TrEMBL record:
First-listed, main subcellular location of the protein, grouped into a coarse class: membrane
Superkingdom as given in the UniProt entry: Archaea
Function: Part of the ABC transporter complex XacGHIJK involved in the uptake of xylose and arabinose. Responsible for energy coupling to the transport system.
Protein name (record): ABC-type D-xylose/L-arabinose transporter
A Pfam cross-reference name: ABC_tran
Protein family per UniProt: Belongs to the ABC transporter superfamily. Carbohydrate uptake transporter-1 (CUT1) (TC 3.A.1.1) family.
MF (Gene Ontology): ABC-type D-xylose transporter activity; ABC-type L-arabinose transporter activity; ATP binding; ATP hydrolysis activity
Catalytic class of the enzyme: translocase
UniProt keywords, alphabetically: ATP-binding, Cell membrane, Hydrolase, Membrane, Nucleotide-binding, Translocase, Transport
CC per GO annotation: ATP-binding cassette (ABC) transporter complex, substrate-binding subunit-containing
Subunit description: The complex is composed of two ATP-binding proteins (XacJ and XacK), two transmembrane proteins (XacH and XacI) and a solute-binding protein (XacG).
Domain ABC transporter: 4-240
High-level lineage: Archaea, Methanobacteriati, Methanobacteriota, Stenosarchaea group, Halobacteria
Amino acid sequence: MAETTLDNVTKVFTDDDGSDIVAVDEVSIDIEDGEFLVLVGPSGCGKSTTLRMIAGLETITDGEIRLDDRVINDIPAKDRDIAMVFQSYALYPHMTVRENMSFGLEESTELSDDEITDRVEEAAEMMGIGELLDRKPGELSGGQQQRVALGRAIVREPAVFLMDEPLSNLDAKLRAQMRTELQQLQEELDTATVYVTHDQTEAMTMGDRIAILNDGELQQVGTPLECYHEPANQFVANFIGEPSMNFLDVDVRETADGATLVGEHLEYAVSDDIADSIEGRSDVVLGIRPEDIDIERDEGRQAGGHEVPAQVSVVEPTGDENIVYLVLGNDEFGDDTELLDTDRETIIATIDGMSTVNSGDRVVAHIPEDAIHLFDARTGEAVH
Ligand code: ATP
């Protein structure tokens, strides 16, 4: 049990022609005791490097990593009291499951043989692989190998678990099942876990908190719902949520009783508190999530207030919902080809799977004011 602190941690690699690659840039995170923290971000953003520095598999260029109050920068990986589970499982092919799980325990702990056997059997039971202890990894399915890799981490009873995309080699169904199992296991063990994934759904469903990285820089740390409802910037807003948030460039026009956001196809009056938060700005980016947009067939009526006229270009049914692509504006597009070819502003709305709209339909899209996000047009920082 321990609290892990990353204090301005930086990693600079030097590539073959001598130039520097800043893989991790002054990242600071406090990982609380017993917490499930998910490190998430696109490929190459520095997730694995961060995890490897915590594990002791990568040196730290600058900054400090602490386990409770102890600085562990220079402590070898094997002495850190941290167990890591890899995407590739990293099992020894010539050893049985039992040997894989107990390997290293003899040297790194003072446990007797009986105690080691007990621990291995208990962890195997927890992972549902009690029957497989005498098999070799080659005789196991991918899912079973993953359980062994997790079991091997559990027997060490470490202060912290580190997991690098541990489910990515499993098929979609098994991955979903293992997600739930892993969460339950983590709650049971009550041991801090840092879990790396590039999959925002995995991050949202598994993490107590998520830490979002981009280009080596930490963008936001918060609960999944905080990151969803109050994204710190446009990158987080875009990364969290599926389909992604829509963004529209708008000018700010100050009016006697507030402000109006003026876009290519939009005149959107906002209330005082929003007007206050964008006072003095000439332009912002308006963000709206697909699930917050309502659409209605226009039946010849004018779009008013917080509505935008649009024409449906594509409808993608997923079963419980329909993903609807909307070309904004009043122009009539004759057929599907014209609709799809247009480079006009398009937004996506998700609506109930039972509602019927078809490509070509003219609609009005309602953008509720309490659901809009506003971002600085240059830095992308959230301003509302
Ligand atoms: P992925 O999801 O693709 O695994 P990641 O977010 O885990 O990506 P890292 O593997 O941490 O990203 O890499 C971060 C950056 O550091 C990348 O630009 C990568 O090319 C670079 N990098 C990683 N390891 C090395 C290395 N040993 N030498 C040079 N550059 C490296």
